[in-house]
Amino acid sequence: MKKYQLGEFEEVVMLTVGILYNDAYGVSVKKEIEQRLSRKVSVGALQSALKRLEDKGYLKSHEGEATQERAGRPKRYFVITALGKRALEYTKTTRENLWKAIPEIALNPRFTG
Amino acid sequence: MRKPPAIFMRFFRWFCRPELKNYIEGDLVELYNERLFEKGKRSADVRFAFDVLLLFRPSIIKSFRGIQPVNNPAMIKSYFTIGWRNLLRNKGYSIINIGGLAIGMAIAILIGLWVYDEVSYDKNFKNYTRIAQVFQNQTFDGKIETWGSQAMQLGAELRSNYSNYFDHVIISTFPGSHKLTFNTKTINMTGSFAEPGIAEMLTLNMVQGTRTGLKDVNGAMLSRSAARALFGDEDAVNKIIRVDHEFDVTVTGIYEDFPENCSFAAYDVLLSWQIIGPAMEQRVGWGNSWFQCLVQIRENVSLSVASQGIKDAKLRRVLQVDDDARFKPELFLHPMSRWRLYSEFENGVYSGGGQIQYVRMLFLIGIFVLFLACINFMNLSTARSEQRAKEVGIRKSIGSLRVQLISQFFFESLLVALLAFIFSVIIVQGALPWFNEITGKNIAILWHSSWFWLGCVGFAIGTGLISGTYPALFLSSFQPVKVLKGTFKVGRNASLPRKVLVIVQFTVSVTLIVSTVIILKQIQFAQSRPIGYSISGIVAVPIRDAVVMKHYDVLRDELLKTGVVEEVAASESAITSTFTTNSGFTWYGKDPNRTEEFVTTGVTHEFGKTIGWKIKAGRDFSRDIASDSSGFIINESAAKYLGMKEPLGETVKWGDNGEWKIIGIVEDMVTQSPYNSVKPMLFFLESNRIAWVQFNQVNMKLRADANAGEALNKITPVFKKYDAENAVEYMFADQEFGKKFDDEKRIGDLAMVSTVLAIFISCLGLFGLASFVASQRTKEIGIRKILGASVPQLWKLLSKDFVMLVVVSCIVSVPFSLYFMTDWLLQYEYRITISWQIYAVAWVGAIAVTLLTISFQSLKTAFGNPVRALRSE
Question: Is B306 helix (H, G, I), strand (E, B) or coil?
Fold first, then answer.
């Protein structure tokens, strides 16, 4: 069932947006992911993921302040919507269910013979 | 503060969605500044560029919704309507335009099909990229010659010592005509004796039997058409047939005929190598390069590696067993992909010539002819621009954008191009049979190939765009105020591009005329070359059974008695193709380092009399002088080659065949290529000293008053008497000689046709322009006439401009034609020099045709009644 569609990277982005709470905009999200997951994130990948998530209604954005180091361009802050929260929860429960369904032996194989 | 690289910034701003632009740009700048601070400018710049490039993805790129579409369907429909009405209103122009374009496109399509056929040669074979023929370079007399033929021993050698390179190594005879007899029926089919791997290598499509059919000692495989010809509807497999009245073979398989555009197209029969191979092994050695050696390279081996690897394969062997090592044989692989187009060698390497030259030449011609047709379109459209200026003015004042006008004119040219395309397909269909005849191919329109149609439509649209661009830009540039006020005049400069285009057209045409004249002259020159003997009335009958020669004297007597034959002589090879060469000659004063080679031909006493050679010094062979059996008659080239002051009476030693005395010198005879210099030749008599020489031809000189058909009827029974089994075949020397010109004649034909068409198209355009100019100047002519101008004066006035253009073209064309044709002529040793007369002919022709074309219009105007010209309006 495709109830809430959320790709792996999208999920990471959403969670990061959640972590940063009122301070989630392009550069901060990028840095946070790079730092926490120690993986490279390109502006392009991030921005297109953010746009996709906003199109799906999982995130909403509002314009923030313009600073000097941004050459006067405004920031765009993201927050998780209610739908986004449900999507995250849904993803989490499905994962947990899957984890639970794995038999003990599959993860801790003992050699009997 | 430093700024990120401007070019990437601009690129980003250009493609990014407007609603995202500011935010992402802010992010980018923030990151940039941070990196600038941490890692320096260079690194920051590079990262910035990467970030921008990675942002170039669908979700970030702006959609095209922001741009207003210029055309909606109604507008497009209106363009077509207007275009169609314009075509109908100016029927004359439309016919010239569409007709010219259609002819140009038809030529382009025909040539395209031809080029496709050439390029796709052999591509039907599954192992196309891995099949190659083993070639050898040998050095004779300091010159490297490249042969495609090999000794039969090479097969075993490559198989056993170089097997890591090849999947298959196949020795086979060169394709020849073989007689296949079943019961009482005999047919002639082309084919080879070949080793069994060939079936697998060429991935034969078996109709019956398997590809192993040639492993059978007496196996034979027939093509489907050969099987049908011989057996009709009967089952052919396992039937025993007789080949060349000599070997009985069993049909072990039937394969689907090869497609026509492949190197094996003629192969209708494949015979087991075992039939002839073992018997030959005794007498045929490394010195006899009589066979072809085909290989299939292993999948993981590259061609160049294999080619390098076998380089010395022959040399190593001949060092031990033969004396061929002195020719320094070097083997190399000639891949199948190059067989058709790149098979001409010079000094051991690809010469740059071959069939590919013609492919390139025709391709060029096709493009040029099409281009000429496009030029017509451009010229006629811009010439008539004043007529449409008002339309453009009104459209612009109502609110048309320039873009809209441009697209309107594009639609009109597309309409013309598409109409022309439809006509061109009809023309192509009609011209194909004739085209196939002159090209010797069997090409058809690829009705079922979607690629063909896609290509053609793309090509039609391309033509429309090329020919429509200039008119569209030109016509749409008018300023509405000027045009509508009525003072609009296209200035003098406006006709300049038109003139340039006419010059281009006629430069191409004149170049083609000159080239055609040169090609035809070269052919004529070679045809009228004194050949040193007489070919008219000479008939050769190939000897199919060696028994005939045992009865030669009786046969000769009987032939003479028929009353239609003037003289008879047997010979080793036909006089029009003496390709047997020998070496191993030594003589007093010979440079010991010289690796000599002579064309050698065994003959009987009356050979000279039969073909009418001209004795320069010494005497002909004589039946009365027994010692003539060790005498040579040499040609002038050989006399020069020997380098003796007085060769007559000198002796030449011929390897193990003893000493030979030169008894006569004959004038050089053209027996090989009529374009090359004559090779040194030796003629000698049949005798025991050279018992291995095989006489293959009986040559007869027919009486001048004898009717050829009747004569053959009388001759046939005589041959039948000594060789009842074989049908008697005839070869007329003049026909055989004529075949030597076929290739060049074909090129001459093609050049002629393209020239005629190029001139026709160019003149069509000129005709249109002339009629336009004439109609524009009607009033001027009227006034001039009233003031007393005479018809010739007016004619001169109207024609002068055009003739000037053609004269300029004539001059411009000189370097082109000189360059191309000098290059073309270089391939012939016996060639004409390009003289000013050729140019004179071409120029006079071009100017005459121009005058004829435009005079019709200019005279019509000049003769017109001035009253009518001035009263109108």
Answer: helix
* Count of structural domains within chain B: 5
Tokens 């609110």 map to which residue? B399
Residue B476 belongs to what domain range? Answer: 73-120+357-490
Domains in chain A, start-ordered, CATH in brackets?
8-103 (1.10.10.10)
The answer to whether the CB of B748 falls within 8 A of the CB of B681 is no
Q: What is the pLDDT of residue A16?
A: 93
The rounded distance, in Å, linking the Cα atoms of B742 and B746 is: 6
Q: What is the number of residues in chain B?
A: 873
- A71: contact with B, CB 8 A cutoff: yes
B866: closest CA among B811, B787, B795? B787
For residue B313, the model assigns a pLDDT of: 86
Q: Are residues B582 and B720 both part of a single domain?
A: yes
Torsion of CA B410, B415, B416, B422, to 10 degrees: 140
Beta strand A59-66 pairing with A74-80? antiparallel
User: B705 and B587 in one domain?
Assistant: yes
- Within 8 A of A51 by CB-CB distance, chain B residues are 20, 59-60
Flag whether pLDDT at A2 surpasses 70.
no
Distance CA B298, CA B166 (A): 5
Cα separation of B558 and B551, whole Å?
Answer: 11
Of B29, B54, B55, which has the smallest distance from its Cβ to A73's Cβ?
A: B29
Asked if the Cβ–Cβ distance from B29 to A71 is below 8 Å, we say yes
pTM for the full model?
Answer: 0.67
**Is there a contact between B689 and B630 (Cβ–Cβ < 8 Å)?**
yes
d(CA A28, nearest CA chain B) in Å: 9
pLDDT for the residue numbered A14: 93
CB B55 to CB A47 under 8 A? yes
Instruction: Characterise B643 by phi-psi region: left (phi > 0), alpha (psi -120 to 50), beta (else).
Output: left
- B538 inside domain: no
Integer CA distances (angstroms), B613 to A38, B556, B681, B689, B731, in order? 96, 20, 13, 25, 19
B588 and B451 fall within a common domain? no
Asked if residue B350 is part of any domain, the answer here is no
ipTM score assigned to the predicted complex: 0.85
The answer for residues whose C-beta is within 8 angstroms of residue B239's C-beta and 6 or more apart is: B182, B231, B250, B251
Same domain, B798 and B849: yes
Alpha-carbon distance of B391 to B279, in angstroms, equals: 88
B307/B162 same-domain check: yes
B800-807 own/partner pairs: CB under 8 Å, 24+ apart: B801/B773, B802/B502, B802/B766, B802/B769, B802/B770, B802/B850, B802/B854, B803/B847, B803/B850, B803/B851, B803/B854, B805/B499, B805/B502, B805/B503, B805/B506, B806/B506, B806/B510, B806/B846, B806/B847, B806/B850, B807/B847
- Domain co-membership, B88 together with B209: no
Three-state SS at B669: coil
Please write the tens of the pLDDT for every residue from B54-74: 888 888 887 765 455 555 677
Which of A26, A48, A63 minimises the CB distance to B27?
A26
Is residue B82 domain-shared with residue B227, that is, in the same domain? Answer: no
The 3 state secondary structure assigned to B421-482 is: HHHHHHHHHHHHHHHHHHHCCCCCCCCCCHHHHHHHHHHHHHHHHHHHHHHHHHHCCCCHHH
Domain membership of residue B248 (yes or no) is yes
| Same domain membership, residue B476 and residue B433 | yes
Interface check A69 vs B, CB under 8 A = yes
Q: Which residue of A lies nearest to B3 if distances are taken between CA atoms?
A: A71
Which chain A residues are within 8 Å of B26, Cβ to Cβ? 26, 66, 70-71, 73-76
Is B375 within a domain?
Answer: yes
Q: Which of B725, B759, B790 is the last residue of a domain?
A: B725
How far apart, in whole angstroms, are the C-alpha atoms of residue B816 and residue B510?
10
Give me the long-range contacts of B352-356 (CB less than 8 A, separation at least 24).
B353/B827, B355/B118
